Amino acid sequence: MGSRVIIDLHTHSSVSDGTDRPAELVAKAAREGLDVLALTDHDTFDGLDEAAAAASTCGVELLRGIEMSTQRKGHSVHLLGYGAREDDPALLAELARIRAGRTDRVSPVLARLAELGLPLSAEDVRRQAGDSPSVGRPHVADAMVAAGYVADRTEAFDRYLSDDGPAHVPRYATGLVEAVGLIRAAGGVAVVAHPWGRGKEWLLPETLWPELVAAGLDGIEVDHFDHDPGQRERLRSLAGRNGLLATGSSDHHGLGKVDHELGRDTTTPEVYAEIVSRIASRV
Ligand code: AMP
Ligand code: FE
Ligand code: FE
Ligand code: ZN
Q1: In the predicted model, is pLDDT for residue 3 greater than 80?
Q2: Using one digit for the tens of pLDDT, what is the confidence trace for 200-243?
Q3: Which residue has the higher pLDDT, 131 or 51?
Q4: 231 with 223: CB under 8 angstroms?
Q5: 252 CB under 6 A from ligand 1?
Q6: Has residue 1 got a pLDDT over 70?
Q7: What is the pLDDT of residue 134?
Q8: Over the Cα atoms of the chain, what is R_g?
Q9: Is the CB of 105 under 6 A from ligand 1?
Q10: Which of 46, 161, 269, 283 has its Cα between 20 and 30 A from that of 275?
């Protein structure tokens, strides 16, 4: 362990839309000097056992997590859950419902793309998704890159797939308040991911947070690439006023997202210790 403790609480593996196997991600974290890594794949716990096995051999502490696809007023909000019971029936049922909604909308998205002159088959997307149980827009973006339609995922989202793009199709997601309740009922710690990223500040205004706190919310991901310095400062004081923990993380997706290198943003040891202690107290 170096003098600075590096704690990164939000990363993705190829089990969702990252590009590294869970074991590769953990090995990379060890090589890059991280002390604690949370694996938080979208809407699935499937990568955690492989990550835990790797962590036990390479000196990285793994925090078991998930990033749930939720919504408020029909707009996407991501919710991180740490240490939730992975056999909780209500949580598992809801995750299955989210994944089904995510996968089912791939076909209408492909229909839109075909109308736009960018035909792709379901198999093209399936190939990009590998064995991921959570097939979504990032895999469609990868198929668009493979077909030579766009240069990278960012261009695919910016021109076609983003929430206001011409190939966007809405899908099922759990209500944010309900999702906080599900994580808490499963004994987990709930943290809203990158709340003000990608122009979403209007969707999660300051006045909303007391309601989320009442639902059991634990924290806000403050230090994230999608937040500028001014937003971070305001979110940090907002967290303080609402008694919420302020976390930080890379949201690493392997090669799937630029500017999200492991350990780029981090969580303090004090906040991490509090998360661990809350998880232990909720068993
Ligand atoms: P989906 O869950 O299928 O709706 O896809 C959402 C995922 O796509 C997010 O978790 C991000 O990883 C990725 N994503 C969303 N918007 C963008 C964007 N503008 N650029 C790159 N990736 C994005
Ligand atoms: Fe993602
Ligand atoms: Fe996210
Ligand atoms: Zn993420």
Answers
A1: no
A2: 999 999 899 999 999 999 999 999 999 999 999 999 999 999 99
A3: 51
A4: no
A5: no
A6: no
A7: 83
A8: 18
A9: no
A10: 46
Which among 137, 153, 154 is the best mutation to test ligand 1's pocket, defined by most ligand atoms within 8 Å of the CB? 137
Ligand 1 atom nearest the C-alpha of 253 is: 12
CA of residue 141 relative to chain centroid, distance: 17
Strands in the chain per DSSP E: 7-8, 36-39, 61-72, 75-82, 174-175, 189-192, 219-223, 245-248
C-alpha to C-alpha distances, 211 to 190, 215, 241, 245, nearest whole angstrom: 14, 6, 13, 16
Pairing of strands 61-72, 75-82: antiparallel
Give the C-alpha separation, 155 to 161, whole Å: 9
271's enclosing H/E stretch is helix 269-281
Task: List, as ranges, residues with CB under 5 A of the ion ligand 3.
Answer: 78, 193
Tell the residue nearest (CA) to atom 10 of ligand 1: 42
- What does each C-alpha distance from 70 to 48, 55, 84, 113, 272 come to in angstroms? 21, 29, 16, 25, 24
